């Protein structure tokens, strides 16, 4: 069985989005695209000025967005009628399909806000499907606990803990792992998948080969293989995310991701003509 090793360690790029929310962007900058993953943002601050303006109403087409809250509260509203208040531990999984207009606004005026947003590409055959909004309450998620670690399963399966997101075309794995110092996390990943770890805090050693030291808020792209072995050299918290590549050409246009430039232009025209939401 081949062990999975580190392919590349990347420091996220400071950025802002929405109405000026400060964040750290990794996928979407470097690498530009890690099929099927289009973007990964970490947002987090104790300073309300960094997040209070939020993400006012804006459109999407052709992608899925996965928002995972670690601290604070966000309110979501969208053109399908979907709405909800996300609190710590909750997940919002939105399939934008043919088009959705939504807003994500802080439901708090002070205190710590911390979370992640991941964009997943949709294959051409699904890009014009009806949009779908899925709210996943933290209380309904499966968690594996033992003396070495805790694994919260958003998608995929770890031991007997199975995530609520199932029968998905990219067969996603999305774990939130807390690992005690000098303990191991081991997991068999599908050879077909592209996989990465996002280290939130602590220090970890991956595989058997030497790699540069990791630190808080670091993206770690993984080689393909079978067994992932992670050692916490200090108590650590990280996301493990994996998905089956789609293997299609993509065209980007801000909040729209399609397969051709013509489809991007059509999305822009639909939005400005008022025919975007079907």
Description:
By secondary structure, the protein is mainly beta. It is built from 1 helix and 23 strands. It has a single domain (6-273), classed as Sandwich (Jelly Rolls), CATH 2.60.120. The strands form 5 sheets. Strands 1, 13, 14, 17, 18, 19, 20 and 21 form an 8-stranded antiparallel beta sheet that branches. A 7-stranded antiparallel beta sheet has the order 2-3-4-11-6-9-12, with no helix packed on it. The longest helix has 13 residues, at 261-273. The termini are far apart.
Structural class: mainly beta
CATH superfamily: Jelly Rolls
Poorly predicted parts: none
Largest pleated sheet: 8 strands, antiparallel
Strand content: over 45%
Oligomer class: single chain
Radius of gyration: 18 Å
In total, the number of strands is: 23
CATH class: Mainly Beta
Cα end-to-end separation? 49 Å
> What percentage of residues falls in helices of 4 or more residues?
under 10%
Q: How many structural units, i.e. domains?
A: 1
The best one-word shape is: globular
Elements, N to C (H/E): EEEEEEEEEEEEEEEEEEEEEEEH
Mean pLDDT: 94
**CATH architecture descriptor text:** Sandwich
Task: Provide a count of the helices.
Answer: 1
Instruction: Kindly report the CATH topology.
Output: Jelly Rolls
């Amino acid at each position: 069985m081949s062990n999975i090793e580190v392919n590349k360690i990347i420091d996220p790029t400071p950025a802002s989005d929405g109405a000026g929310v400060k964040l750290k962007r990794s996928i979407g900058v470097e690498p530009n695209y890690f099929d099927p993953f289009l973007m990964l943002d970490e947002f987090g601050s104790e300073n309300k000025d960094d997040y209070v303006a939020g993400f006012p109403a804006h459109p999407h087409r052709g992608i899925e967005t996965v928002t995972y809250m670690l601290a604070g509260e966000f309110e979501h509203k969208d053109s399908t009628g979907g709405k909800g208040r996300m609190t710590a531990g909750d997940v919002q999984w939105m399939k934008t399909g043919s088009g959705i207009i939504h807003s994500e606004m802080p439901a708090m005026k002070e205190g710590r806000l911390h979370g992640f947003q991941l964009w997943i590409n949709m294959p051409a055959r699904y890009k014009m499907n009806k949009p779908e909004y899925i709210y996943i309450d933290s209380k309904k998620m499966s968690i594996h606990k033992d003396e070495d670690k805790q694994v919260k399963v958003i998608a995929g399966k770890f031991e007997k803990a199975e995530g609520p997101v199932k029968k998905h075309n990219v067969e996603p794995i999305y774990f939130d792992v807390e690992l005690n110092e000098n303990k191991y996390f081991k997991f068999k990943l599908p050879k077909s998948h592209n996989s990465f770890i996002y280290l939130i805090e602590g220090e970890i050693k991956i595989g058997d080969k030497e790699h540069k030291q990791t630190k808080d808020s670091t993206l770690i792209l993984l080689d393909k293989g079978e067994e992932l072995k992670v050692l916490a050299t200090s108590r650590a918290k990280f996301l493990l995310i994996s998905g089956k590549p789609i293997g299609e050409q993509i065209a980007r246009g801000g909040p729209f991701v399609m397969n051709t430039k013509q489809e991007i232009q059509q999305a822009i025209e639909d939005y400005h003509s008022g025919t975007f939401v079907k």
